[in-house]
Fold this sequence. Notes:
48% of the residues lie in helices and 20% in strands. The protein has helices at 18-35, 41-61, 69-79, 82-85, 128-136, 140-159, 164-169, 171-174, 176-187, 194-201, 207-226, 232-270, 276-284, 286-314, 323-368, 383-392, 494-498, 539-545, 550-562, 592-595; strands at 4-9, 12-17, 372-374, 380-382, 395-400, 406-408, 419-425, 431-441, 444-454, 460-468, 475-484, 506-509, 514-517, 520-523, 527-530, 568-577, 582-589, 602-615. It has three domains: 1-112, no CATH class; 232-367, no CATH class; 376-501 and 536-615, Galactose-binding domain-like (Jelly Rolls). The protein has 618 residues and is of the alpha+beta class. The termini are far apart. It contains 20 helices and 18 strands.
Amino acid sequence: MKKNITINLCGRLYQIDEDAYELLSQYIEALRSYFKKQEGGEEIAGDIEERVAELFDDLKAQGTEAIAIEQVQDIIHQIGQVEEIAGETPSDSPEGEGSHAGGSEKVQRPLNTKKYFRDSQNKLLAGVLAGCAQYFGGSADAWRWGFVILSVLWIGFWSSIGTFMLSIFVLPFIFLPAFAYLLVAIFSPATQTAEDVLQMKGKEVNPQNLATEVQEAAQVKVKVKKASDTSVWDIFVGIISLCLSTLLTIGFIVALCFFVAFLVAHELMAGEWWDVHDAEELQSITLPVVLCGILLLASIGILLYCSIHAAVSSFGKTKPMSGKQRVIWFLLWVASMVGFIGSCVWAAGRLANTQMGHWNTHRMVTVAEYESVTDEQGHVFSKEEWDFFQQNGWEMVTAENVDRYTYIGEYMTGDKNVRYLDDCNDYTPLVYTARKHEDDVEPGIYRLSAVVKADNENKFIYLYGVTIDEQTGDSTVIADEVKEIPNYGLEGGNIWEALGGETKGKVVTKESSSLTVGAVTVPLGSKVTVEKSEPVNDPVLMDYVSQFTDRTKRRILGAHDGKGFGWSYIYIDNIKVDNPNNTIFYGVTTDESITGKPATTGWFSATDFKLEKIGEVE
C-alpha cells in the first residue's frame, strides 16, 4: 500500500502517490536548473508545468483518482524535447541550429563538458571514490578496494621506517591517504541535480538526457523501496557493527575505570599516600594524563556511537547517516586521536623531565661527596655531611676506624633522601661519638629519645648533663646515662612491630664463628628463624607510633619490601633536672670510655633525637 499526497500544480489540486511525486519534483527541478541559464527560462519552465497540469487533468477526466509513477513516466516521455514545447525548432531542423520561431533569438548550446563530482547516489562514505569511478572509469568497488590496499601498504611502510618517536613525527605522512580523501570530500561538490549527474558522466546536458536521468534515478529509488527492508548485506553489516559495539563498550568501560583510578590516585596522593618522588612524578603528568584520558574516552565514544548507529540503521530502525554527518564524525575522531597521541607524548616528556631532575639531584649529591671540609679536631667531612652537622647542631667528638659520618637511603619510611648519623666497619672495631647540646635547660623531668638501628652489640645513645654554678663556675654532674641500640639488622625493628609488622619468623644472619639458639649451635653464615612471640607492650613506644599519619604508617610497614629496615624507638627516661643553668649533652657513641663496653665491628644508624620535658620536679 502506497501513501498518497495532495499537490498544488498551477493552482490545481491533484492526488498523487509518493513515488510519482518524487519523480515529478525531480524532473521539474532538473528542467528549472537547465533553463535558468537562458533568458526567459522561468517562462519556459512555467510552460512545462502548465503542460504537465493539463495532462494530469486528462487523467482525472479518465477517472484516475491518484496519479501513479507509471503515468508520470508516460507524461515525461510525451513531453519529449523542451524545444518543441517552447515553440523552438529541433536542432536537426533545416532552418538552422538554434533558430527560433520568432526569428533570430538563439538557445544556449547544451553543455557536454565532463566534470568531477562526488557521487551521491552510489556513496558509502562521501562518494569520493564512486565519483572517481564515474570520472576516470572503472567500478566503484574496484576503486574502494584499491584505496584500502594502498592505504594499508602506505601505513605499513611509514610505520616500519623508525622508532615510535620517529613515527610520531611522520604521523601526517602515515595518514596522508586519509587526509587526501578528506580534502576531496570537503572541497569537491557532490551531485545534487540530474544536471550534475550528467556532467559527472560526461553526457550532454539536454532536456531528453535530463528526463532520462531523472527517470533512472527514480526507478533506482523505487527498486530500493520495493526491495526487502533488511538484505543479507544489511544483516551482515548489522552483526559486525553489534560485535564492534560490544568491544568498544568494553574498551570504553576499561578506559573509564583507568581514568577514574588515576583521578582517585591523584586525590590519595594529596592525602599523603605516595612516596615523595612518586608524588612529584604523578603531579607532573596530571594535566596531560587527564587531557589524554578525556580525548581517549571521546575517541572511543565516537566510534561506539557510530557503530551503534550503523547497527540500528542496518536493521531499518533509523535512517543511515548522511555523508556530511559521516565526515564530521570522522574529523572529530581524527582530532581526538591526534590530541590523544599528543597528550601521551606530552605526559611522557614531563615524566622524563621529572625523573631526569631526580637523577640530576642525586648526581649533584654524589659529586658533592667529593668536596671535603676539615673541622678543628681534624675530622674530614664531605660537604653534604658537614652541612648536615652544621644545620642540626652536631659536633664530632671522636672518630676512629670510621669511613663516614652520615648516610642516606634506608630511613624507616623508605624515603631515600633522609640523612642520618651512621658509620660502618666490618673489619675493625669502630669508635664513633657525635653529640649536640642544649643550654639553659629548665628544672623538670626529661626524656631523651631517638630512632636507631644496628647490626651488632655495644652501640649506644647517651646523655650527659651538668649544672654550672654561676658564682664559682664549678660544674656538677646531674645525669650520665646510656641506652644500647637494639640490633635487628636490616629487618623488623620495634617501630615496625608496634605498627603491626610480623613478630614471628624473623630470619637473621650472624656474622660470627657460630650462633647458639637454645641448645643448638649452627655454623657461620647460616640463617636461623628466631621466634619473637612477645607482644609490643611499651606504652611510650605505642604513644610514639600513634602520632604517625596513616601515610607514614603504611610507608614504614611497606619499606624494604614489607620487611622493615630494622629501626627502633629507644629512650632514656626520668632525667631529673633540679637547678637552673643546666647544659645537657646527648648523642650516639661506641666509645668504651663513655659506655663501659668495648667497641665492636658492624654498623649503626641514629636520627630523630628529641629531648623533651615530661614532668615537673616535686
